[in-house]
Amino acid sequence: MYLGLDLGTSGLRAVLVDGEGRVLAASDQAYPVSHPHSGWSEQDPAEWIAATERALDALSQSHPKELAALRAIGLSGQMHGATLLDGANEVLRPAILWNDTRAATEAAAMDGDPAFRAISGNIVFPGFTAPKLAWVQVHEPEIFGRVAMVLLPKDYLRLWLTGDHASDMSDSAGTSWMDTGKRAWSTDLLGKAGMRLDQMPRLVEGSEVSGTLRREVAKRWGLSESVKVVGGGGDNSASACGVGCFDEGDGFVSLGTSGVLLAAKAGFAPSPETAVHTFCHSVPDTWYQMGVILAATDCLNWLAAQTGTKPAELSALVGDRIDGPGSIRFLPYLSGERTPHNDARIRGAFVGLSIGDGHKELTQAVMEGVAFALKDNHEALKATGTTLNRLLAIGGGSKSDYWVELIATLLGAPIDLPEKGEFGAALGAARLAIVGDTGAAPSEVMTRPAVARTIQPRADLAHAYDESYAQYRALYPALKEIT
Q1: pLDDT tens, residue by residue, 61-73
Q2: N- or C-end of the chain: fewer Cβ atoms within 10 A?
Q3: Where is the active site (predicted)?
Q4: What residues are designated binding site for substrate?
Protein backbone atom coordinates (compact mmCIF):
# COMPACT_ATOMS: atom_id res chain seq x y z
CA MET A 1 0.00 0.00 0.00
CA TYR A 2 1.11 3.55 -0.74
CA LEU A 3 0.05 6.96 0.49
CA GLY A 4 0.09 10.31 -1.30
CA LEU A 5 -0.18 13.48 0.78
CA ASP A 6 -0.89 16.76 -1.01
CA LEU A 7 -0.44 19.82 1.21
CA GLY A 8 -2.54 22.41 -0.58
CA THR A 9 -3.24 26.05 0.17
CA SER A 10 -6.64 25.49 1.76
CA GLY A 11 -6.36 21.88 2.85
CA LEU A 12 -4.58 18.54 2.79
CA ARG A 13 -5.64 15.59 0.64
CA ALA A 14 -4.52 12.07 1.51
CA VAL A 15 -4.94 9.24 -1.01
CA LEU A 16 -4.32 5.57 -0.20
CA VAL A 17 -3.56 3.35 -3.22
CA ASP A 18 -2.58 -0.25 -3.80
CA GLY A 19 0.47 -1.50 -5.66
CA GLU A 20 -1.31 -1.06 -9.00
CA GLY A 21 -2.07 2.56 -8.22
CA ARG A 22 -5.79 1.95 -7.68
CA VAL A 23 -7.30 4.40 -5.21
CA LEU A 24 -8.73 2.68 -2.15
CA ALA A 25 -9.56 5.66 0.05
CA ALA A 26 -9.10 9.39 0.39
CA SER A 27 -9.44 12.00 3.10
CA ASP A 28 -9.65 15.80 2.82
CA GLN A 29 -8.87 18.06 5.75
CA ALA A 30 -9.22 21.85 5.59
CA TYR A 31 -7.23 24.57 7.34
CA PRO A 32 -7.34 28.38 7.23
CA VAL A 33 -5.22 30.98 5.44
CA SER A 34 -4.46 34.26 7.19
CA HIS A 35 -4.29 37.63 5.40
CA PRO A 36 -3.18 40.05 8.16
CA HIS A 37 -2.34 42.84 5.70
CA SER A 38 -3.02 43.62 2.04
CA GLY A 39 -0.90 41.33 -0.13
CA TRP A 40 0.02 39.05 2.79
CA SER A 41 -0.82 35.34 2.90
CA GLU A 42 0.32 33.20 5.83
CA GLN A 43 -0.33 29.86 7.51
CA ASP A 44 0.53 28.26 10.82
CA PRO A 45 2.56 25.09 10.04
CA ALA A 46 0.92 23.44 13.06
CA GLU A 47 -2.28 23.40 10.99
CA TRP A 48 -0.54 21.21 8.39
CA ILE A 49 0.44 18.64 11.00
CA ALA A 50 -3.01 18.65 12.60
CA ALA A 51 -4.64 18.11 9.19
CA THR A 52 -2.31 15.19 8.46
CA GLU A 53 -3.12 13.63 11.82
CA ARG A 54 -6.85 13.93 11.10
CA ALA A 55 -6.38 12.39 7.65
CA LEU A 56 -4.40 9.45 9.00
CA ASP A 57 -6.98 8.95 11.75
CA ALA A 58 -9.73 8.83 9.11
CA LEU A 59 -7.87 6.33 6.92
CA SER A 60 -7.00 4.22 9.96
CA GLN A 61 -10.68 4.01 10.87
CA SER A 62 -11.97 3.29 7.35
CA HIS A 63 -9.14 1.06 6.07
CA PRO A 64 -7.10 -0.18 9.05
CA LYS A 65 -5.63 -3.28 7.38
CA GLU A 66 -4.65 -1.43 4.23
CA LEU A 67 -3.01 1.45 6.10
CA ALA A 68 -1.13 -1.01 8.31
CA ALA A 69 0.37 -2.53 5.14
CA LEU A 70 1.80 0.83 4.04
CA ARG A 71 5.20 0.63 2.35
CA ALA A 72 5.93 4.20 1.22
CA ILE A 73 4.63 7.77 1.31
CA GLY A 74 4.94 10.46 -1.35
CA LEU A 75 4.56 14.17 -0.66
CA SER A 76 3.21 17.01 -2.77
CA GLY A 77 2.60 20.58 -1.75
CA GLN A 78 2.03 24.24 -2.44
CA MET A 79 5.28 25.69 -3.71
CA HIS A 80 7.47 28.66 -2.68
CA GLY A 81 6.31 28.91 0.96
CA ALA A 82 8.92 29.97 3.53
CA THR A 83 8.83 27.90 6.72
CA LEU A 84 11.55 29.25 9.04
CA LEU A 85 13.02 27.03 11.76
CA ASP A 86 15.53 27.64 14.53
CA GLY A 87 18.25 25.22 15.60
CA ALA A 88 15.74 23.16 17.60
CA ASN A 89 13.38 22.84 14.58
CA GLU A 90 10.91 25.23 16.20
CA VAL A 91 8.88 27.43 13.85
CA LEU A 92 9.96 31.08 14.14
CA ARG A 93 6.97 32.78 12.48
CA PRO A 94 3.91 31.89 10.35
CA ALA A 95 4.87 30.46 6.98
CA ILE A 96 4.77 33.01 4.15
CA LEU A 97 2.85 31.43 1.26
CA TRP A 98 3.22 31.34 -2.53
CA ASN A 99 0.54 33.99 -3.13
CA ASP A 100 2.05 36.49 -0.69
CA THR A 101 3.34 39.56 -2.56
CA ARG A 102 4.94 41.61 0.24
CA ALA A 103 8.46 40.94 -1.08
CA ALA A 104 7.97 42.70 -4.44
CA THR A 105 10.74 45.22 -3.75
CA GLU A 106 13.20 42.53 -2.67
CA ALA A 107 12.29 40.36 -5.68
CA ALA A 108 12.90 43.23 -8.08
CA ALA A 109 16.30 43.90 -6.52
CA MET A 110 17.33 40.25 -6.88
CA ASP A 111 15.98 40.04 -10.41
CA GLY A 112 18.12 43.04 -11.28
CA ASP A 113 21.17 40.85 -10.79
CA PRO A 114 21.56 38.86 -14.06
CA ALA A 115 22.96 35.87 -12.15
CA PHE A 116 19.55 34.93 -10.77
CA ARG A 117 17.93 34.44 -14.17
CA ALA A 118 21.08 32.90 -15.65
CA ILE A 119 21.48 30.26 -12.93
CA SER A 120 17.91 29.61 -11.76
CA GLY A 121 16.41 29.91 -15.26
CA ASN A 122 13.57 32.04 -13.93
CA ILE A 123 12.52 35.55 -13.05
CA VAL A 124 12.69 36.16 -9.31
CA PHE A 125 8.97 36.48 -8.66
CA PRO A 126 7.75 38.09 -5.40
CA GLY A 127 6.06 34.83 -4.46
CA PHE A 128 9.29 32.82 -4.63
CA THR A 129 11.10 31.87 -1.43
CA ALA A 130 14.34 33.85 -1.70
CA PRO A 131 12.77 37.33 -1.71
CA LYS A 132 10.64 36.34 1.27
CA LEU A 133 13.80 35.73 3.29
CA ALA A 134 15.20 39.04 2.08
CA TRP A 135 12.01 40.72 3.36
CA VAL A 136 12.39 39.00 6.73
CA GLN A 137 16.02 40.16 6.90
CA VAL A 138 14.91 43.79 6.47
CA HIS A 139 11.68 43.82 8.47
CA GLU A 140 12.22 41.08 11.07
CA PRO A 141 16.01 41.01 11.61
CA GLU A 142 15.83 39.23 14.97
CA ILE A 143 13.93 36.34 13.39
CA PHE A 144 16.25 36.27 10.38
CA GLY A 145 19.25 35.97 12.67
CA ARG A 146 17.78 32.85 14.28
CA VAL A 147 16.98 31.00 11.02
CA ALA A 148 18.81 27.67 11.01
CA MET A 149 16.75 25.98 8.27
CA VAL A 150 14.29 27.05 5.57
CA LEU A 151 11.78 24.42 4.49
CA LEU A 152 9.06 24.45 1.87
CA PRO A 153 5.61 23.57 3.27
CA LYS A 154 5.51 19.90 2.32
CA ASP A 155 9.08 19.50 3.59
CA TYR A 156 8.02 20.67 7.05
CA LEU A 157 5.51 17.81 6.90
CA ARG A 158 8.42 15.53 5.90
CA LEU A 159 10.37 16.71 8.95
CA TRP A 160 7.44 15.71 11.17
CA LEU A 161 7.18 12.33 9.44
CA THR A 162 10.88 11.42 9.34
CA GLY A 163 12.91 13.88 11.39
CA ASP A 164 14.97 14.68 8.26
CA HIS A 165 15.66 17.99 6.50
CA ALA A 166 15.17 17.14 2.82
CA SER A 167 13.44 18.48 -0.26
CA ASP A 168 12.89 17.37 -3.82
CA MET A 169 14.28 19.23 -6.81
CA SER A 170 10.97 20.18 -8.43
CA ASP A 171 9.77 22.09 -5.37
CA SER A 172 13.17 23.61 -4.61
CA ALA A 173 13.48 24.93 -8.18
CA GLY A 174 10.91 27.56 -7.20
CA THR A 175 13.04 29.15 -4.50
CA SER A 176 15.48 31.23 -6.68
CA TRP A 177 18.36 29.58 -4.79
CA MET A 178 18.79 26.60 -7.09
CA ASP A 179 20.81 25.91 -10.23
CA THR A 180 17.85 24.40 -12.05
CA GLY A 181 19.89 22.99 -14.93
CA LYS A 182 22.33 21.22 -12.58
CA ARG A 183 19.54 20.21 -10.16
CA ALA A 184 21.56 21.46 -7.17
CA TRP A 185 21.66 24.38 -4.75
CA SER A 186 23.66 27.31 -6.09
CA THR A 187 26.18 28.62 -3.58
CA ASP A 188 26.45 31.75 -5.74
CA LEU A 189 22.75 32.56 -5.51
CA LEU A 190 22.60 31.67 -1.82
CA GLY A 191 25.50 34.00 -1.11
CA LYS A 192 23.94 36.83 -3.10
CA ALA A 193 20.73 36.36 -1.11
CA GLY A 194 22.50 36.39 2.26
CA MET A 195 21.86 32.70 2.89
CA ARG A 196 24.10 29.69 3.57
CA LEU A 197 24.13 26.15 2.21
CA ASP A 198 23.72 24.71 5.73
CA GLN A 199 20.33 26.50 5.94
CA MET A 200 19.07 24.44 2.99
CA PRO A 201 17.66 20.89 3.16
CA ARG A 202 19.34 17.98 1.38
CA LEU A 203 18.08 17.59 -2.20
CA VAL A 204 16.64 14.34 -3.59
CA GLU A 205 14.81 13.33 -6.75
CA GLY A 206 11.05 12.96 -6.59
CA SER A 207 11.08 9.16 -6.40
CA GLU A 208 14.22 8.96 -4.25
CA VAL A 209 13.85 7.83 -0.63
CA SER A 210 14.46 10.75 1.75
CA GLY A 211 13.95 8.89 5.03
CA THR A 212 11.73 6.56 7.04
CA LEU A 213 9.05 7.14 9.64
CA ARG A 214 9.87 8.39 13.11
CA ARG A 215 9.05 5.90 15.83
CA GLU A 216 6.36 8.16 17.35
CA VAL A 217 4.53 8.51 14.04
CA ALA A 218 4.77 4.81 13.20
CA LYS A 219 3.54 3.76 16.65
CA ARG A 220 0.52 6.09 16.71
CA TRP A 221 -0.97 4.62 13.52
CA GLY A 222 0.36 1.08 13.79
CA LEU A 223 2.82 1.47 10.92
CA SER A 224 6.24 -0.01 10.35
CA GLU A 225 9.21 2.26 11.06
CA SER A 226 10.60 1.05 7.73
CA VAL A 227 7.90 2.92 5.76
CA LYS A 228 9.77 5.03 3.22
CA VAL A 229 9.11 8.70 2.50
CA VAL A 230 10.17 9.72 -1.01
CA GLY A 231 11.06 13.17 -2.29
CA GLY A 232 7.72 13.87 -3.95
CA GLY A 233 7.19 17.13 -5.78
CA GLY A 234 5.75 20.60 -5.97
CA ASP A 235 2.01 20.48 -6.60
CA ASN A 236 2.14 21.04 -10.36
CA SER A 237 4.96 18.58 -10.91
CA ALA A 238 3.13 15.99 -8.81
CA SER A 239 -0.07 16.67 -10.76
CA ALA A 240 1.90 16.00 -13.94
CA CYS A 241 2.86 12.63 -12.46
CA GLY A 242 -0.80 12.02 -11.62
CA VAL A 243 -1.83 12.47 -15.26
CA GLY A 244 1.25 10.93 -16.91
CA CYS A 245 2.64 14.19 -18.23
CA PHE A 246 6.43 13.93 -18.51
CA ASP A 247 7.22 13.44 -22.21
CA GLU A 248 8.07 16.36 -24.51
CA GLY A 249 4.84 17.91 -25.78
CA ASP A 250 2.60 16.51 -23.02
CA GLY A 251 0.62 19.22 -21.28
CA PHE A 252 -2.33 20.10 -19.10
CA VAL A 253 -4.38 23.10 -18.06
CA SER A 254 -5.26 23.31 -14.38
CA LEU A 255 -8.22 25.38 -13.24
CA GLY A 256 -7.67 25.45 -9.51
CA THR A 257 -7.17 28.24 -6.99
CA SER A 258 -4.49 29.43 -9.38
CA GLY A 259 -4.40 28.66 -13.10
CA VAL A 260 -1.60 26.69 -14.74
CA LEU A 261 -0.70 25.82 -18.31
CA LEU A 262 2.05 23.20 -18.11
CA ALA A 263 4.23 21.52 -20.74
CA ALA A 264 6.71 18.73 -20.06
CA LYS A 265 10.24 19.22 -21.45
CA ALA A 266 12.92 16.65 -22.20
CA GLY A 267 15.73 19.13 -21.49
CA PHE A 268 16.48 22.35 -19.67
CA ALA A 269 15.63 25.28 -21.94
CA PRO A 270 14.74 28.33 -19.81
CA SER A 271 13.27 31.52 -21.19
CA PRO A 272 12.87 33.82 -18.16
CA GLU A 273 12.15 36.93 -20.21
CA THR A 274 8.74 35.44 -21.08
CA ALA A 275 7.83 35.08 -17.36
CA VAL A 276 7.36 31.35 -18.03
CA HIS A 277 8.50 29.13 -15.16
CA THR A 278 11.14 26.49 -15.96
CA PHE A 279 11.48 23.95 -13.14
CA CYS A 280 12.87 20.48 -12.52
CA HIS A 281 10.28 17.74 -12.88
CA SER A 282 9.74 15.15 -10.15
CA VAL A 283 10.86 12.56 -12.70
CA PRO A 284 14.70 12.42 -12.85
CA ASP A 285 16.50 14.18 -15.70
CA THR A 286 13.29 15.86 -16.82
CA TRP A 287 12.07 19.46 -16.64
CA TYR A 288 8.83 21.30 -17.34
CA GLN A 289 7.67 24.77 -18.23
CA MET A 290 4.48 26.46 -17.15
CA GLY A 291 2.65 29.73 -17.23
CA VAL A 292 0.90 30.64 -14.00
CA ILE A 293 -1.94 33.01 -13.19
CA LEU A 294 -2.42 33.72 -9.50
CA ALA A 295 -6.22 33.59 -9.46
CA ALA A 296 -8.38 31.21 -11.51
CA THR A 297 -11.26 29.60 -9.61
CA ASP A 298 -10.36 32.06 -6.87
CA CYS A 299 -11.92 34.73 -9.09
CA LEU A 300 -15.21 32.84 -9.26
CA ASN A 301 -15.04 32.14 -5.52
CA TRP A 302 -14.54 35.86 -4.92
CA LEU A 303 -17.55 36.76 -7.09
CA ALA A 304 -19.66 34.15 -5.30
CA ALA A 305 -18.74 35.65 -1.93
CA GLN A 306 -19.64 39.16 -3.09
CA THR A 307 -23.00 38.07 -4.55
CA GLY A 308 -23.98 35.78 -1.67
CA THR A 309 -24.16 32.72 -3.92
CA LYS A 310 -22.14 29.58 -4.53
CA PRO A 311 -19.61 29.17 -7.36
CA ALA A 312 -21.59 26.27 -8.83
CA GLU A 313 -24.73 28.41 -8.92
CA LEU A 314 -22.90 31.15 -10.80
CA SER A 315 -21.40 28.64 -13.23
CA ALA A 316 -24.86 27.24 -13.96
CA LEU A 317 -26.01 30.68 -15.11
CA VAL A 318 -23.81 30.60 -18.23
CA GLY A 319 -24.77 27.06 -19.23
CA ASP A 320 -22.60 24.41 -20.92
CA ARG A 321 -21.83 25.99 -24.32
CA ILE A 322 -20.23 29.26 -25.31
CA ASP A 323 -22.09 31.54 -27.71
CA GLY A 324 -19.73 34.47 -28.14
CA PRO A 325 -17.97 36.93 -25.82
CA GLY A 326 -19.82 39.25 -23.48
CA SER A 327 -19.48 43.03 -23.42
CA ILE A 328 -17.74 43.22 -20.01
CA ARG A 329 -14.00 42.71 -19.70
CA PHE A 330 -12.61 41.37 -16.40
CA LEU A 331 -8.94 41.48 -15.49
CA PRO A 332 -8.32 38.66 -12.99
CA TYR A 333 -5.46 40.28 -11.10
CA LEU A 334 -6.99 39.97 -7.62
CA SER A 335 -3.60 39.03 -6.14
CA GLY A 336 -1.31 40.53 -8.77
CA GLU A 337 -0.08 38.43 -11.69
CA ARG A 338 2.83 36.24 -12.73
CA THR A 339 2.86 35.15 -16.37
CA PRO A 340 3.31 37.19 -18.48
CA HIS A 341 3.41 40.44 -16.45
CA ASN A 342 5.40 39.64 -13.26
CA ASP A 343 3.43 42.39 -11.52
CA ALA A 344 2.72 42.02 -7.81
CA ARG A 345 1.00 45.40 -7.50
CA ILE A 346 -1.52 45.21 -10.35
CA ARG A 347 -5.10 44.59 -9.22
CA GLY A 348 -8.25 43.37 -10.94
CA ALA A 349 -10.99 45.35 -12.65
CA PHE A 350 -14.30 45.17 -14.48
CA VAL A 351 -14.56 47.33 -17.62
CA GLY A 352 -17.76 47.95 -19.59
CA LEU A 353 -20.39 47.49 -16.90
CA SER A 354 -23.92 48.65 -17.69
CA ILE A 355 -26.96 49.13 -15.50
CA GLY A 356 -28.64 46.05 -16.92
CA ASP A 357 -25.82 43.65 -16.10
CA GLY A 358 -26.45 41.04 -13.45
CA HIS A 359 -24.91 37.89 -11.97
CA LYS A 360 -24.87 36.03 -15.30
CA GLU A 361 -23.01 38.79 -17.13
CA LEU A 362 -20.50 39.20 -14.29
CA THR A 363 -19.92 35.44 -14.18
CA GLN A 364 -19.33 35.30 -17.93
CA ALA A 365 -16.88 38.19 -17.65
CA VAL A 366 -14.95 36.46 -14.85
CA MET A 367 -14.71 33.19 -16.75
CA GLU A 368 -13.61 35.00 -19.91
CA GLY A 369 -11.02 37.02 -17.99
CA VAL A 370 -9.45 33.85 -16.56
CA ALA A 371 -9.50 32.22 -20.01
CA PHE A 372 -7.88 35.29 -21.59
CA ALA A 373 -5.16 35.18 -18.91
CA LEU A 374 -4.51 31.53 -19.77
CA LYS A 375 -4.21 32.53 -23.43
CA ASP A 376 -1.56 35.03 -22.27
CA ASN A 377 0.24 32.01 -20.79
CA HIS A 378 -0.15 30.07 -24.04
CA GLU A 379 1.38 32.92 -26.02
CA ALA A 380 4.28 33.09 -23.55
CA LEU A 381 4.89 29.34 -23.84
CA LYS A 382 4.82 29.55 -27.64
CA ALA A 383 7.46 32.29 -27.45
CA THR A 384 9.81 29.75 -25.81
CA GLY A 385 9.32 27.33 -28.71
CA THR A 386 6.93 25.07 -26.81
CA THR A 387 4.12 23.44 -28.77
CA LEU A 388 0.97 22.07 -27.15
CA ASN A 389 -1.28 20.35 -29.66
CA ARG A 390 -3.57 18.72 -27.15
CA LEU A 391 -4.28 19.31 -23.47
CA LEU A 392 -5.83 17.58 -20.50
CA ALA A 393 -8.01 19.66 -18.16
CA ILE A 394 -7.81 19.14 -14.39
CA GLY A 395 -8.88 21.09 -11.31
CA GLY A 396 -12.26 22.10 -9.95
CA GLY A 397 -12.93 24.59 -12.75
CA SER A 398 -12.71 21.83 -15.36
CA LYS A 399 -16.16 20.65 -14.22
CA SER A 400 -17.58 23.55 -16.23
CA ASP A 401 -17.93 22.57 -19.90
CA TYR A 402 -18.48 26.25 -20.68
CA TRP A 403 -15.10 27.23 -19.22
CA VAL A 404 -13.26 24.34 -20.89
CA GLU A 405 -14.84 25.03 -24.30
CA LEU A 406 -13.93 28.70 -23.93
CA ILE A 407 -10.28 27.87 -23.17
CA ALA A 408 -10.14 25.32 -26.01
CA THR A 409 -11.44 27.96 -28.43
CA LEU A 410 -8.98 30.61 -27.27
CA LEU A 411 -6.01 28.23 -27.37
CA GLY A 412 -7.10 26.59 -30.61
CA ALA A 413 -6.56 23.09 -29.24
CA PRO A 414 -8.84 20.22 -28.18
CA ILE A 415 -9.01 19.58 -24.44
CA ASP A 416 -9.50 16.11 -23.01
CA LEU A 417 -11.54 15.55 -19.87
CA PRO A 418 -10.46 12.49 -17.89
CA GLU A 419 -12.88 9.92 -16.60
CA LYS A 420 -14.04 10.48 -13.04
CA GLY A 421 -11.47 9.44 -10.51
CA GLU A 422 -8.33 10.53 -8.74
CA PHE A 423 -5.64 12.03 -10.96
CA GLY A 424 -4.30 15.06 -9.11
CA ALA A 425 -1.24 15.88 -7.05
CA ALA A 426 -2.03 13.41 -4.26
CA LEU A 427 -2.16 10.54 -6.75
CA GLY A 428 1.05 11.81 -8.35
CA ALA A 429 2.73 11.75 -4.94
CA ALA A 430 1.51 8.19 -4.36
CA ARG A 431 2.85 7.17 -7.78
CA LEU A 432 6.25 8.62 -6.87
CA ALA A 433 6.13 6.51 -3.70
CA ILE A 434 5.45 3.38 -5.79
CA VAL A 435 8.41 4.12 -8.07
CA GLY A 436 10.65 4.84 -5.08
CA ASP A 437 9.69 1.62 -3.33
CA THR A 438 9.61 -0.79 -6.28
CA GLY A 439 12.16 0.70 -8.67
CA ALA A 440 9.61 0.54 -11.48
CA ALA A 441 10.05 2.83 -14.48
CA PRO A 442 8.01 6.04 -14.17
CA SER A 443 6.37 5.37 -17.55
CA GLU A 444 4.99 2.08 -16.21
CA VAL A 445 3.40 3.69 -13.15
CA MET A 446 2.54 7.21 -14.30
CA THR A 447 0.10 6.38 -17.07
CA ARG A 448 -2.32 8.88 -18.56
CA PRO A 449 -5.93 8.66 -17.36
CA ALA A 450 -8.67 7.34 -19.58
CA VAL A 451 -10.39 10.15 -21.45
CA ALA A 452 -14.12 10.46 -20.88
CA ARG A 453 -14.64 12.95 -23.69
CA THR A 454 -12.92 15.69 -25.65
CA ILE A 455 -14.10 19.27 -25.99
CA GLN A 456 -13.19 20.77 -29.35
CA PRO A 457 -12.48 24.45 -30.02
CA ARG A 458 -15.33 26.37 -31.67
CA ALA A 459 -13.94 27.52 -35.00
CA ASP A 460 -17.11 29.50 -35.69
CA LEU A 461 -16.50 31.70 -32.64
CA ALA A 462 -12.69 31.88 -32.67
CA HIS A 463 -12.51 35.23 -34.45
CA ALA A 464 -14.97 36.90 -32.07
CA TYR A 465 -13.03 35.70 -29.04
CA ASP A 466 -9.73 36.76 -30.59
CA GLU A 467 -11.12 40.29 -30.98
CA SER A 468 -12.22 40.33 -27.34
CA TYR A 469 -8.82 39.01 -26.31
CA ALA A 470 -7.19 41.94 -28.13
CA GLN A 471 -9.37 44.30 -26.08
CA TYR A 472 -8.36 42.48 -22.90
CA ARG A 473 -4.67 42.77 -23.80
CA ALA A 474 -5.00 46.52 -24.31
CA LEU A 475 -6.43 47.03 -20.82
CA TYR A 476 -3.41 45.89 -18.78
CA PRO A 477 -1.12 48.85 -19.63
CA ALA A 478 -4.02 51.28 -19.07
CA LEU A 479 -4.82 49.72 -15.69
CA LYS A 480 -1.16 49.70 -14.68
CA GLU A 481 -0.98 53.48 -15.10
CA ILE A 482 -3.60 54.05 -12.40
CA THR A 483 -2.75 51.27 -9.90
Answers
A1: 999 999 999 999 9
A2: C
A3: 235 (proton acceptor)
A4: 79-80
